[in-house]
Specification:
The complex is a heterodimer of chains A (about 250) and B (about 220).
Chain A: E1 9-20, E2 23-34, E3 38-42, H1 49-56, E4 64-69, E5 72-73, H2 79-85, E6 88-91, H3 103-115, H4 119-132, H5 148-160, E7 166-170, H6 178-193, E8 197-201, H7 205-211, E9 214-219, E10 222-227, H8 229-234, H9 239-249
Parallel strand pairs in A: 3-8, 3-9, 6-7, 7-8
Antiparallel strand pairs in A: 1-2, 1-4, 4-5, 9-10
Helix pairs in contact in A: 3-4, 3-5, 4-5, 5-6
Chain B: H1 2-6, H2 8-40, H3 45-59, H4 63-76, H5 84-110, H6 113-121, H7 126-156, H8 168-178, H9 183-211
Helix pairs in contact in B: 2-3, 2-5, 2-7, 2-8, 2-9, 3-5, 4-5, 5-7, 6-7, 7-9, 8-9
Classes of the chains: A alpha/beta (about 250), B mainly alpha (about 220).
């Protein structure tokens, strides 16, 4: 649990709807995430949680409703959107490190090309970040030479290098071998402790218990429950959440 | 055989002109083709539409028509040239750029979409995503088809011979007329000089391909 008091609304979604053809993937979503808050989004696959996460930095467009980041409406595609995305860090399920760039370049590219930071300074900051996530010695290698867990930690460092206001995690451990999940979760728990605002889509209930301020449970494109971790895990209100949790516990 | 050796200066002259047409048209087509491919994947619908229409029309009509346009229609519209070479370069680069656009586009599509998403998520603009992340990675898959297109361009430049440009094929035609008893050897000579350009291009392709290989 974070000790700091959550501040102003940093991310807010109001009456957001999205369809994929006939499929209504996001149904009237309302969600507010305050500064410093860690919100974990869980739910069965196909419930729309990844779509929700991707909609927040407009990797997915929405049909109606509005999404605000730090009080500003998400702009249309273009320069303004690019600027806003620089403030929203994103970590993907499949890491998506730039395959033709070294680990160090992966982290420095954003600061240098987007923010105009001098190379020397960007290198220094990037090395500090890579050390922080425990892969400093891998800096000159290419992504394909690293394990999945290491790649994902680099991806977190790459997002942090932009000094984002909020970090989005889209199932960051789902593509990892079991023994590598913890090294990534440890970095995320540390980040949460330091007061980063985070929205985490995950199946890792341990992380939700340990680091989340709120758990948002989604099913069939709707937010079914929005509660503290204790409340949600010990006393879920909806039958949908009870059903979901009982399936997890039987394994 | 003798006819080739006796006429080496003409061959050499034609060879240089073919090389000149191919290199200039190739460079222009690479630039225009890449821009067309970028337009094709851009977020602006009008650019996508223009690029698609251009590629479909040019790619699906004969090169001779492109030459007629450049050599006959353009001058009637008031765009005149001192030399027919200019018309030939316009026709060849306009024609070849459509094929290059398609090759580059398929290369762009071969790069996993997550690469572009990651680049966008750290705040890169479309032009940066394309030039820093996508195109460098597309290069590897694009090199082989690109070299094929450039080889075709070298051979296609022979059409210029029919439009008063004395490149390799044009010279060959004149030599064949002057040496009616040795037409076969004249043409063997012409073929040899084409191979002098196209075979090294194929070799270059395999060298570059190995150099730009990216581990995934």
């Amino acid at each position: 649990m974070t000790t700091q008091v959550p501040g102003d609304a940093l991310v807010s979604l109001k009456a957001v709807n999205k369809h994929y053809g006939q499929l209504h993937v996001l149904k009237d979503i309302n969600l507010t995430v305050r500064k410093g808050e860690v919100v974990v989004v869980i739910g069965p696959s196909g419930s729309g949680k990844s779509t929700l996460c991707r909609a927040i930095n407009r990797l997915e467009t929405i049909d109606d409703g509005d999404i605000k980041i730090d009080g500003k409406e998400l702009p249309e595609e273009g320069k303004e959107l690019a600027k806003l995305r620089a403030d929203v860090g994103m970590v993907f399920q499949s890491f998506n490190l730039f395959a033709h760039k070294t680990i160090l370049e992966n982290v420095t590219l954003g600061p240098i090309k987007v923010k105009g930071v001098a190379k020397g300074e960007a290198d220094k900051d990037a090395m500090a970040l890579l050390e922080r996530v425990g892969v400093g010695h891998q800096a000159p290698k290419l992504p394909a030479q690293l394990s999945g867990g290491q790649q994902q930690r680099v991806a977190i460092a790459r997002a942090l290098a932009m000094k984002p206001k909020v970090m989005l995690f889209d199932e960051p451990t789902s593509a990892l071998d079991p023994e590598m999940i913890n090294e990534v979760l440890d970095v995320m728990v540390q980040l949460a402790k330091e007061g980063m605002t985070m929205i985490v889509v995950t199946h890792e209930m341990g992380f939700a218990r340990k680091a989340a301020d709120r758990v948002v449970f989604m099913a069939d494109g709707q937010i079914v429950e929005d509660a503290t971790p204790e409340e949600f895990f010990t006393n879920p209100k909806s039958s949908r959440a009870k059903d979901f949790l009982s399936k997890l516990l039987t394994h | 055989m003798d006819v080739i050796i006796e006429n080496l200066p003409q061959y050499w002259d034609g060879f240089l002109r073919t090389l000149f047409l191919s290199v200039i048209s190739g460079i222009i087509a690479l630039i225009v083709g890449t821009v067309l491919a970028a337009a094709r994947v851009s977020p602006v619908a009008a650019l996508r539409g223009f690029s698609m229409a251009y590629v479909e029309i040019v790619r699906n009509t004969p090169l001779t028509i492109a030459f007629f346009f450049a050599a006959v229609v353009l001058p009637r519209l008031g765009i005149t040239f001192q030399q027919f070479e200019v018309a030939a370069i316009i026709a060849l680069s306009a024609y070849t750029s459509a094929f290059i656009a398609e090759a580059v586009r398929s290369g762009v599509n071969s790069v996993p979409v997550g690469q572009a998403e990651a680049a966008r998520s750290i705040g890169m603009k479309f032009s940066q995503v394309l030039s820093l992340i996508i195109l460098p990675q597309a290069l590897r898959t694009v090199i082989p088809p690109l070299i094929n297109i450039l080889i075709a361009l070298v051979k296609n430049s022979s059409v210029a011979g029919a439009f008063y440009v004395l490149e390799l094929f044009g010279q060959g035609k004149q030599l064949a007329n002057a040496n009616g008893d040795a037409v076969v050897w004249v043409l063997v000579g012409v073929a040899f000089f084409y191979l002098l350009i196209t075979i090294p291009l194929g070799y270059l392709a395999s060298v570059v391909e190995r150099k730009v290989a990216i581990a995934r």
